[in-house]
Amino acid sequence: MQHVYVMRDPRNYNDFKVGFSINPIQRKKQMYRTNTPLPFELYRVWAVANQRTTEQIAHARLYDHRINDRREWFEVIPLSSPLWEPGISSDKDLLDVY
């Protein structure tokens, strides 16, 4: 099964990584072992028919929010952020697939 995932930086809830993987849970663990001080949070995961094409579409839609042209990181205020919905005490969202 193919997946497109969105991971969030636990130190900055507005920074998201959009990528693809057959196993997003394993990918999250792999990223933590390689280059981050804290593990990323899996924000959303979708099962898709073509992960590469779906990821490319997501990157194109988020182009104006890209942090670095050579990285898959985007700065976006999540819809569940208190900035959008006052009174919400936490903007941690449930995972769609896992």
Give a verbal description of the structure.
This protein is an alpha+beta fold. It contains two helices and four strands. The protein has helices at residues 24-35, 51-61; strands at residues 2-9, 12-21, 41-48, 73-75. It has a four-stranded antiparallel β-sheet. The longest helix has 12 residues, at 24-35.
List the helices and strands and how they pair.
Layout: E1 2-9, E2 12-21, H1 24-35, E3 41-48, H2 51-61, E4 73-75
Antiparallel strand pairs: 1-2, 1-3, 2-4
Low-confidence stretches: 83-98
Number of continuous helical runs: 2
Tertiary shape: globular
Compute the separation of the termini in Å: 13 Å
The ordered string of helix (H) and strand (E) elements is: EEHEHE
Radius of gyration: 13 Å
What percent strand?
Answer: 25-35%
Strands ordered across the widest β-sheet = 3-1-2-4
Structural class: alpha+beta
**Number of distinct beta strands:** 4
Mean pLDDT: 80
Helix content: 10-25%
- Sheet with most strands: 4 strands, antiparallel
